Structure formats: structure tokens, C-alpha cells
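Suppose a colleague, Dr. K., hands you the sequence of a protein chain of 475 amino acids and asks what its three-dimensional shape might be. Before reaching for any lab equipment, you can write down a predicted structure in C-alpha cell form. Begin with the sequence itself:
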Amino acid sequence: MLQHFRIKKAVLVLTLLGFVSAPGFAAATAATSDPGVQMVPQNFSALADRVGPAVVNIQVEKTAQPAMHPFENRRGGPEDQFRDFFGPHFGIPAPRPHRQSGLGTGFVIDRDGYIVTNNHVVDGADKIKVVLQDEREFDATVVGRDPQTDLALIKVDADAALPAVTLGKSSDLKVGQWVVAIGNPFGLDHTVTAGIVSAKGRAIGSGPYDDYIQTDASINPGNSGGPLVNMQGEVVGINTAIIPDGQGIGFAIPIDMASSIVAQLKKKGEVTRGWLGVSIQDLGDDLADYYGIHKGQGVLVTNVVPGDPADKAGIRANDIITEVDGTKVNSSRELTAKAAGLTVDDRVDVTLLRDGKEKTVSLKVGRRPVTLARNGKSDSETEPNYGIQVTDLTPELARQMNIDADRGAVVTGIEPGSKADKAGLEEGDVIVEVNHQEVDSARDFKTRVQKNSKGDRLNLLVKNGRGGLKVIQLS
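The predicted structure, expressed as C-alpha cells, is then:
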């Protein structure tokens, strides 16, 4: 199970198998002026032996909701005359939920049985089984999930301490350094592949917290959630995404970002992020010239949410934020990530440019809602029969959530154990249709649900945080 993104690899040819140096290669290595640069290692056996026992195979079972019958929403066919007489579902077998299985990877982060993996590996799972390298099997439970960064923390209860990985620092990685991926591609247990760090800080359009390590270590479906390891045997990333038409292009979540998120999941079961209450955009050449600054020196504020922290601190639209808490911000992605990492209720200094003059304001950090933002004006609507709370999708909210939609109802709350929870609806999903009828707002959604007085099945067409469509069926 692995996310796919569409973005060809130059073939790297090694002379001999087993990564043994070719003639003259040793001399080239010795002549390297930078002692920190490691050429092709002799082998990766010791590293695999060290990390492998803490890498687990994750097997999940899900209840897949049936898709709409292909004739259920069509008119004009020869069967219509029978439907008009016998009813709209004449001749259509009732679709039934079916079981679906999937595979992924994870790694143990402490001896008590906490395991890190990708959210998309365990999302919607009815049953999670973890298999260790020594073939011990355990049932696992979800401790917490963060769909925004595609991270999840699960736990197993073992009779004895489990082998655990050592976490490194992704900030210390350099492009060109060797890394190793360990996982279960296509169910092939504990496959070890090697490559280099191809790039850092990649944005691949998966969400507002894009900051991936790109590697050419071979990763495939089933590697999801597995560790990316440096030559010291430390985990520096979590393998998450690939490009289906590319070879040698894979992406891993940096461990520096993942560590803070996992710590929150372990403590609270959810992630709390800082919130400034602004809509922002990068400064292109034209805007930079207009405001008399260099491109990439700051982020333009396009809107301030009334009553939120930035508004209270006196920040205005058209201000250019250049620093937050002493750290320079040069892009909207940097500012979003910086704000998310701030501690709620702490005070930070925000440096900005207004009318060409520098100004510093003190801001009390707010808490970013689970759906990433709120408009401040739109009203929430609650549908208690299904356990759903929604709010209007505004242009500001759509930009901040990176969702290509201009209408709909954003799910802001799901009651645990409710029909919506069991059906797989998630906070941050955008409901765009109910039973093939468009939904333009939160009130529109509630009205359409209330018209279902007979309690018939509801089919919700939903856009998720990555822009994909799914159908959620509520009965």
C-alpha cells in the first residue's frame, strides 16, 4: 500500500555485484577530499541485521463499501418501464459490503510495542495484524492517526520487550548520501534496497505539509510505512509515496517532522497544531517588484480571519511576514510548517513589512482546527443521526486545505462509534453530493439529509484531503 504521484531516472551502473569496488575505485575513494563522503559501501548486511528485527509486516482487513450499481442512476433503458411499475431498484441486486485486505510496513520505536506506519496503511481497518521478522504475530490497535502528514501510531501488547529502531536526524542528511529502505513490497517480507538521497524538501502536492526526502532506493507498494535508514543504522525517514511511471523516484517523510507528530499521537491520540489565522501566498517576481523586495523574502498575507490570533495582533491583509519567532520564512510552505509547530497559547514575535517599513508584533498562538482552518463567519451544522458536524467550504479554507473545490460541506467533527465513523468518513473530508444532489454549504447538507425521513441509505460523494473522490454509504 503506497501513495502514487505523477512527476525517469538516470541509470546508475555499478561495475560488480555485491557493491565491490571496481579497479581504480579504491584509489578514487582515497583521493576524495571530503572525509564525510562515503562511497559505495562493501555491503549492507550489518545494517540490515541491526534494523531488520524492528521492521514489521502490517496486514489489514477492511470492510469495503459497495459501489453504486452501474444502472442505479441511469434512465432511458428498456428496464425503465419495469422500474416505474415495480420500483426504482427492480432487477438490481442489492450491493453488499465485502472484505478487503492490504499490506504495509511499520517499525517499532520502543520496546513497549509502539509502531509507526503510514495513515493510509491502517485507515479504515477493522483488523490489524503485525508480523515480526521472527514470525511472531500480534493484533494491533490504533493509538492515533494524522491524515494531514499520513502518519499513524499503532500498538501491540507483547509478553517481552520488542526490538526497536534508533531514530536519527533527517536534518543531517545530505543529497548524495547512501540510504537503505526496508519493507515488504508486494508482500515480500523484509526486502532490503539501497540508494542515495536524491533531493530534500520535495513538495509533491499531497498536502500543506509537503517536505519529502526523495530517494532512488527501490520502494514499491507494500513498503509504505517502512523505515529509510542511514549508514549508521538510524531511521531518517518513513517511506510513503512513489511515482508509478517513474523508476527510482520515491519519497519519505523526514523523521524530524514525524517524531514530534508521533509524540503527540502517543500522548493524546491526536495532533495539535499552531494557528495564526491568515491566508497567505508566495511572492512571485511581479509581486516582489511591486512591494520593492527580493523574491523569496517573505510571504504575502492575503486575508486575516476575524477574531483569530493574527487579527488580534494587528496583522493586516497585504502585510509581508518575513520572520516568525526569530526564524526567517521565505515561502508559504515554510510559514505553514513553522506555524504548525508552534505551541498553542505561547506568544511569538512576528516580523513583517508594511508599506516598506519593518514592524514586529506579538502574537498569541491559536489552535489549528483538525480541518486546518475555519472561516470565522460560517456556521457549523450537526447531523446527530449519523454523528457528523460540518461547516461551509470557503475559498480560504479550500486554499489552506489544498482542495480543488469551490463548494461543499467540510467535515469538522465525527462522533466516535457513530454511523459516519464506522463508514469511514473523516474530519477534513469535503461532502460535495448527497444521493447525487449537489451540496453547496453546511446548511444544504443538513437539509438534504433531513429529507431522508424514511432512513434510506445515503450515498455521500466526498473529496478527501489529497483531492481524490470516494463514496461513503450511510444507512
